[in-house]
Structures are given as structure tokens and as C-alpha cells.
Amino acid sequence: MRSLLLSLLVFISTNIFAQSDEEVLRDFYTHALEEQQSYRWLGELCAIGPRLAGSEGATEAVKWAMKTMESMNFDTVYLQPVEVPHWVRGEEEARFGRFPLSVTALGGSISTPEGGITAQVVEVSDFSMLDSLGELGLLEGKIVFYNYPMKQHYIKTFHAYSDAVKYRWMGAAKASEYGAVASLIRSLSTRIDDFPHTGTMTYRDVKTKIPGGALSTMAAEWLSVQLKRQPDKKMLLRLESEDKGRTTSYNVIADLYGSTYPEQIMVLGGHLDSWDLAEGAHDDGAGCVHSMGAAQLIMDSDVALKRTLRVVLYMNEEFGLDGARTYAQMTHDQRHVLAIESDAGGYIPRGFSFDTDSITLEKIRRFQPLFLPYGLFEFTNQGSGADVGQIQDANAILGGLRPESQRYFDVHHAATDVYAAVNARELEIGTASIAAIVYLMDFYDTFKPQD
Ligand SMILES: [Zn+2]
User: Fold this and answer.
1) Alpha carbon of 271 to ligand 1 centroid (Å)
2) How far, in Å, from the CA of 283 to the mean position of ligand 1?
3) Considering only CA atoms, which of 60, 65, 68 is closest in space to residue 79?
4) Are 298 and 341 in a shared domain?
5) How far, in Å, is the centroid of ligand 1 from the Cα of 198?
């Protein structure tokens, strides 16, 4: 009798006296910080090693994600096949005279010929200098070295990245038009150290493909000084790689059905693949465990979402967005109301950026005071993310978690992007923040009008 009364009281207290929003959020953050579930999952994921699409590591990561999400309380967990490239890095070496320089091939680069390339190096500061020298025929047979640094004056380092990434993406293709035999960039990093940073490049429709690599920022600085002293000295460059064609991999997807509008979908996502130089802890292991962890926090709370919560761990963001494109195609007839991506690292969150109309943004901004105690203040309309950006549903609000960006490009796509570089508390505050925004938007129906 007593226990019946007690359970009746519990029933009344959880169902009639709804917790205040402050309390719901406080519970998410408390839980996340005390349990550190995202951080523990990140440790398991990183233990697999690098997860470049098409690799053994990526296959293991798919299995791990499937098994882990199956152990949670989702209504369904499934794999979605995705065709991905399979490019494999080989041995790499750069020597200027007898001095070795830290170098790595850019993703998708062709291999240097047997024995490597030995040629003079011409440093250019940007594409306009490339064009000037190229038109004079001065790049014929040379290794072009783009010494274009990420600009330090940007407060958000992603802006510096957007400004400089064209040299990585198109540098080799443009240099080949002037007869260069290889192309090197200064790594896209805001720090001076000796770790080269990789990333994708394109050949577009060039006649002659040439290898493309990246020097560490330290090597770039050193080489720049040496080239002024000894411009005729040659560099040996060996960047071996193999293109193994395409193979099948998977997006890993899990749904928690909504109680009132199960057909309306709210996506949380990150990409499961990483570059091959490290464990991809920040990029984007953090985004995967943020998404899984936010779902776990919601499942562990008294919150019953009205809409379906879907976690999507995308395969191959880094090498062509194949997972996101496939997801968008396969779900084009489903109703997405929200898709939030975390692909900017596991650092302390500053807020969220959205890709929506200004009226909807104003509605979302009403939640901002609830986040201030946790240090999140940024609620802007400055884009979402590469993976969720593929969703074509006009009714969807797209968004991205915006962590502090000062240290992200220290480790981005380099051997330094490891588990030890992630702070458990900063990561968990990100997880709780995602759970919080989803709860609030769902509870207050903060979506675009559905047609
Ligand atoms: Zn990423």
C-alpha cells in the first residue's frame, strides 16, 4: 500500500509538475559531466585508430558504432550502404639537399614516380604570383611551393581556414597548368610545429596530374629561408599512394521514435570517418560521441520528445561527402524539421550557428538566456555543416554546434588529433548543449511551419 502511494506520488510529480527548463538543462549538464559517457565512447572509438573511408579502421568504426547504439534504447539501429573511395597513403619523404622536411601527401594525390621527383622549388605567396611566374614559363619542371599561411587576424579560425583552403584544394591542379611537376602547400595550421596536415585536393579536369603534398608549418618557414639563400638547390620529393577505386561502407543510423509526431525527424550527426594520420579525435570522433551522448542524455531523462530523434554517423565526409549525399537521397521523402551537426571539434562550446530564416532564428534566440550559465552565447545564422548541408528539405532547420575554435587547426587533419588532445569536460558540455537545444526546440515547437 505504502509503495503504491509512493509510486502514485512519483507519477504525479513527474507528470503533472513538469520540471522547469532550467532544471531540465541543469540535469543534462550534471549528468554529462558526472557520467562522461561521450568521453568514454570517444576513447573506444579512438582506440580503433585512423578511420579513413574504405580502410579497415573505418570498417571497425562502423561495427563499433552499430554495436554501441544497439546497446542503447533506440527503437531501431541500421546501416545505410555508401560507396566510398579507397585511397591508401604510402611512404613519404622530402629532402632539401640533405635536410629532411616533414611532409605528407594530400588526400587523392597521385603517387610520385618510382624514386621520387628531384627538382628545383619555386615559392609563391598566392595564386596571382603563380600566374605571373607561370606565364613567364618559370614554373616549367619545378616543384611549386605555396607558402600561404592561415591568416592570424581572424577571431574564428574557420574563417582563416576558408580563406586558405583553396591552395590545398586547387594548388596542384593550377600549378600543373604551368608545367610544374609537383605542388606543396604550407600546412593549414595556425600553429608553428613540425606536423604536416593533410586534407582533400582536386584535379578538376587537368591534362596532367601532379602530386600534391603539405609541409609542416615549421618546414615551410625553414624552406622559405633556405630558398632565398640557395634558389637553385633541388628537392627530392617522394609521396607514394595508391588509388584502390571504390568500395562499400556505411552510414550508421539510429532512431528514437517521437511520441506525437514520429514522422517529423530531428537529426543529430557527426562523421565517423577520419583522416589517416591520426585517430580523428576532434575531427570528428567528438561529433559522433556528441550526437550519441546527447541522445543518451535524453533517453536517461524524463523528457519524452514529440518528434523522432535520429543519430546519423556519416561515412566519408572528408573525401567527398558520400555518406551525407547518400543519406539525403535515401531520405528525400522523409520530413526533416531539424538537423544539427557537430564537426568543429570537442572544445568548449560557444553556441550554435544555424542555416534558417531570420524569423525562425529569432525564435531560437529566445533560448539563449538558458544557455548563458554554461558559457554558450552565440546563436547566429552563419551556416551549419557540410554533412547536414546536403539535406534538401526546405522545412528543415540546419544547425551546427560552435565550439571555441582557437586550437582546432593545431590538430585538424594532423597526427596530433588524438584522444589525449580532447578535454573530457569541454566535450561533455558540448554533448549536454546539443541535448538541451533539441529538447527546447521540440518542446516549444520551434520549427518552420510545415506544409
Ligand atoms: Zn570533420
Assistant:
1) 7
2) 4
3) 65
4) yes
5) 12
Cis amide leading into 194 (omega within 30): no
Residue where a domain terminates, one of 192, 209, 242: 242
* Side-chain-facing half-sphere of 169: CA atoms under 13 Å: 10
Checking if the pLDDT of 3 tops 60, the result is no
The alpha carbon of 274 and the centre of ligand 1 are apart by a number of angstroms equal to 7
- Give residue 237's pLDDT: 98
Range of the domain at 425: 19-75+257-443
Q: CATH code at 410?
A: 3.40.630.10
- How far is Cα 332 from Cα 395, in angstroms, rounded to an integer? 12
Mean pLDDT of the chain: 95
Q: Tell me how far the alpha carbon of residue 128 lies from the centroid of ligand 1, in angstroms.
A: 30
**Residue 281 DSSP code:** I
pLDDT tens-digit series, residues 13-35: 444 344 699 999 999 999 999 99
For residue 176, report the distance from its CA to the centre of ligand 1, in Å.
Answer: 28
> Could you give phi then psi for residue 175, rounded to 5 degrees?
-65, -35
For residue 12, tell me if it sits in a domain: no
Residue 393: its pLDDT value, please? 84
Distance 376 CA to ligand 1 centre (A): 21
253 Cα–ligand 1 center, Å: 18
Q: Note the residue count of the chain.
A: 451
* CA of residue 224 relative to chain centroid, distance: 31
For 13-17, 41-45, 144-148, which range has the lowest pLDDT when averaged over its residues?
A: 13-17
The number of angstroms, rounded, from the C-alpha of 279 to the middle of its chain's C-alpha atoms is 13
Burial of 2 (0-12, 13-18, 19+ CB in 10 A): exposed
| CA 388 to ligand 1 centroid distance, Å | 12
The predicted model scores a pTM of 0.94
Q: Report how far ligand 1's centroid is from the alpha carbon of 344 (Å).
A: 7
Q: How close is the Cα of 227 to the center of ligand 1, in Å?
A: 34
pLDDT beyond 90 at 429: yes
119 Cα to the center of ligand 1, angstroms:
34
Shared domain check, 415 and 377:
yes
Kindly give the distance from the C-alpha atom of residue 317 to the centroid of ligand 1, in angstroms, as a whole number: 7
Our count of domains for the chain comes to 2
Q: How confident is the model at residue 10 (pLDDT cuts 50, 70, 90)?
A: very low
119 neighbors 163 (Cβ within 8 angstroms): no
Task: Give me ligand 1 centre to Cα 385, in Å.
Answer: 9
Chain centroid offset of residue 132 CA: 35
Q: Which three cell numbers stand for residue 52?
A: 579513413
Claim to verify: residue 132 and residue 222 sit in the same structural domain: yes
- Compute, in angstroms, the gap from residue 17 CA to the centroid of ligand 1: 42
Residue 8: its pLDDT value, please? Answer: 47
**How confident is the model over 341-347, as a mean pLDDT?**
98
